[in-house]
Structures are given as structure tokens and as C-alpha cells.
Amino acid sequence: MTVYATVDSPLGELLLVGEESASAVGGTALVSLSLPGQKGAAEIKDDWRCDPGAFEEIAGQLRGYFAGELRHFAIEYAPGAGTDFQRCVWRAVEEIPYGETATYGQIAERVGAAGAGVRAVGTAIGRNPLLVVRPCHRVIGADGALRGYAGGVERKERLLGLEGALVS
User: Fold this and answer.
1) Per its UniProt entry, what is the enzyme's top EC class, as one word (predicted)?
2) What's the whole-model pTM score?
């Protein structure tokens, strides 16, 4: 069954969506984490059940992150989202350390899609359903500029500032 909850954050009210899973910590595997006004944000459906308790562990980690106390999320994601290429890109994004950045070109090189693949990498990153916890905000332009972010470039800048990432 799909469950959801909202969590207050400095970026606005986050919408967490998950699937109940006996193997997941807290019993819920995260499917989506979206921000208000986000491009492609999840929308609550009638057959979903509101269950804030299902997300207590995740909400605690988010509070720790926004307080500057947590640098790495330990969250179980629901399998199956995205194409093989998107999942490969998302894994590369997850490897970017807290407080650091990587360019779209560097991610393309890591996944074997250098050159023309940079655009495909950007598209895959733009379809990341797990904002904040899968740190696509750490991916920047080759010139150091902040490029697109589904939650808005201002939020990307706030997240990088929180992490102390140096962006020119």
C-alpha cells in the first residue's frame, strides 16, 4: 500500500511517499520526496493512506540534515523507479560527498556517457524522484554555475549553502 506524510523543512513542506515494506527500516521504503511547487512533484492520490508514523525514521534524518548534524542518509528506497540509465546516474549522484559538488560532465564520465551524454545525464538528474536525500543539488554546470533543479535554483543554492559547498 502507498502511504504518505508531510514534513516541515526550511525549504517548505516536504511530501514523502512510500510503499509499505516488511524489510524496510520503519516498515516503509521511500518512493518519492518532493518539494512544494517542484516540477514533476508527486500528487496525493485518493487510494493513498496518510501515515506520518511510517516516516518517523526518515523525518528524523531530514531534521538532522537540516540542522547540519547529518551528512549521509541511510534510507531504503523502493526499487523500480526510473530506467536503467537513470538509476545508474542516480547512483553516481549519491556518491557525491556532502559539501562537495560535481559537474554534469563529470557525472556523464562516471556513467560512461561523456560528450553528447551530458544532456541525457541532465535529463536523468531532472527526473530524480528523491530530492534532498538523493543529492542532485550537488550537480552544477561546468562553469560552476547553478543549473536547473526541480525544486528551484534558489533551493539548490540553500542546500549547497547548508552543506558548505563552495560554488563560484
Assistant:
1) transferase
2) 0.91
